[in-house]
Design brief:
Low-confidence stretches: none
Strand content: under 5%
Order of helices and strands: HHHHHHHHHHHHHHHHHHHHHH
Mean pLDDT: 83
Structural class: mainly alpha
Number of strands: 0
Radius of gyration: 22 Å
Number of helices: 22
Helix content: over 70%
Shape: globular
Number of domains: 2
Distance between the termini: 19 Å
Largest sheet: none
């Protein structure tokens, strides 16, 4: 694939992946604004208690096979079908296991409702397993248009249904049925819009080949999934369902820009970088550009969100959720580094070093869990602030092997990102100061957002940030 063709596919991939992520999340966000006013923090907390089981199941079903299929340049129909049937069998076994242990989970959290909630909600595991291969093949070909169409339609349909259920008094079941309907519609559309269909074939040789690479990513995924949901487990167990509801809403707000931009970058850059994995100079140049552009976009967004957290949350979902805004501020500063972590880890996969990927994740999680446990006695807010420290520590660890593999380590990356980081922190402090002078919530939010845009763009143009020109070229394409 020529460099120009690769660049064009990358731009198209970013655009369509971005449209999918932000259109779907935009619809989901609007639905959440309505539903959150009708439901209680405890309703969201109950669903959040089950999040880890669904996340672990997704990781086990995929087993790294999606990434293995995407990375394999000479994939065959046998490979595709092997992954397809493996996913379905594993999903059925996992659902059976989760169905059996549901009462134990309910006893652990001392929430009797969780038994039935878990047994119904976990059906989504089986539904999603039917489209893993379709998504992998579409991603490998950098075709996100079909995925965008399927995701957006499913979000609209399930969102409308959720608003109806919430207004009809279905409570926590609103969130459960919304997930099930969204998954079902998405899978049906992917089958309708994708050309791939399963055939009756399976190969243990193919399984072993894909699993040798994917198994390490599965282990990494499991470690990462358990860690990402560890806060929910501890908060739900030690504090309360309402506290977990506040935390989950705060985390949801921070995820809207951070995780979605990261998801776009990972989905598009992984197959793109795989195509140039043997061209060291091109890999380094594209890698640094990706880091700079991702930080240029996400850092100011997260700092601005932290600055306007209180007026934003109170206006959007009501004053009863104000404590979520307090938690959102430190979470934003922790999550702003998330895209940088992801791009660094993507490189290890591109270079085929899933062994290093696993090693790094084990080291990081030991450190992170230690910090988390130490922070519990100081309360929920302190636990959120401790995430900032662990995020920076993890960044240092992630960049160690990046420096070894392509000579772009922690120091070089910090030099590349320094200008953007300083500008974003100036935005945060300016917004905090200005909104403290205003009483009206709407004026606080408008003043904060306007000031953030003016200051950040002013600094970017004044100091001629390279990222501005690169983003201009993407928009023109």
């Amino acid at each position: 694939m020529g460099e120009q063709s690769l660049k064009d596919k990358t731009v198209k991939g970013v655009v369509w992946s971005g449209l999918e992520r932000f259109s779907v999340q935009g619809v989901s966000f609007l639905v959440m604004l309505v539903v959150a006013r009708l439901l209680s923090p405890s309703d969201y907390g109950l669903v959040a208690m089950l999040a880890i089981f669904l996340a672990v199941a997704r990781t086990l079903i995929d087993s790294g096979f999606s990434q293995a299929l995407i990375r394999k340049q000479d994939r065959t129909e046998t490979d595709n079908n092997t992954v397809f049937y493996f996913n379905i069998v594993v999903s059925l076994l996992l659902y059976l296991l989760l169905f059996i242990i549901a009462p134990l989970v309910s006893d652990f959290y001392q929430e009797p409702q969780l038994t039935l909630l878990m047994r119904v909600q976990c059906i989504v595991i089986i539904i999603n397993s039917f489209a893993v291969v379709q998504r992998a093949l579409l991603t490998a070909s950098i075709n996100f248009k079909v995925q965008a169409q399927a995701s957006l339609i499913s979000a609209i349909v399930s969102g409308g249904f959720a608003i109806y259920l919430a207004s009809s008094g279905y409570g926590v079941w609103t969130l459960v049925f919304q997930q099930l309907l969204s998954a079902a519609v998405n899978v049906l559309l992917l089958w309708r819009l994708s050309s791939w269909r399963p055939k009756l074939m399976y190969s243990w040789q193919s399984f072993r080949e894909l699993f040798s690479f994917g198994s390490k990513l599965m282990a990494v995924g499991l470690i990462d999934t358990i860690y990402n949901n560890l806060y929910q487990i501890i908060i739900g167990k030690i504090f309360s369902a309402a506290s977990l509801g506040f935390y989950s809403r705060a985390f949801h707000f921070s995820e809207l820009p951070s995780s979605n931009i990261t998801g776009i970058l990972q989905r598009v850059t992984y197959p793109v970088l795989c195509n140039i994995q043997n061209d060291a100079a091109s890999l380094r140049n594209n890698y640094r550009k990706l880091l700079r552009v991702s930080a240029f976009v996400i850092f100011p967004i997260m700092c601005t969100m932290a600055g306007v957290a209180h007026p934003m949350v109170q206006l959007l979902i009501g004053e009863k959720w104000d404590y979520a805004a307090t938690l959102l501020i430190p979470i934003c500063f922790a999550m702003m580094w998330y895209p940088i972590h992801a791009i660094n880890l993507n490189l290890l996969q591109v270079k085929g070093r899933s062994d290093l990927f696993l090693k790094l994740e084990i080291i990081k999680k030991i450190i992170i869990v230690s910090v988390l446990i130490a922070s519990i006695p100081f309360g929920l807010l302190f636990m959120c602030y401790s995430r900032i420290a662990t995020s920076v520590i993890c960044l240092f660890i992630n960049t160690y092997y990046t420096g070894k593999l392509i000579q772009i380590g922690f120091i070089q990356q910090m030099k590349d990102l320094a200008g953007t980081l300083v500008a974003s922190l100036i935005v945060f402090t300016s917004v905090i100061f200005v909104i403290s002078l205003v009483d009206n919530l709407i004026l606080k939010l408008l003043a904060g957002l306007t000031l953030a845009v003016v200051i950040y763009m002013g600094i970017s143009f004044l100091f001629k940030y390279k990222e501005v020109e690169y983003l201009k070229s993407i928009i023109k394409k």
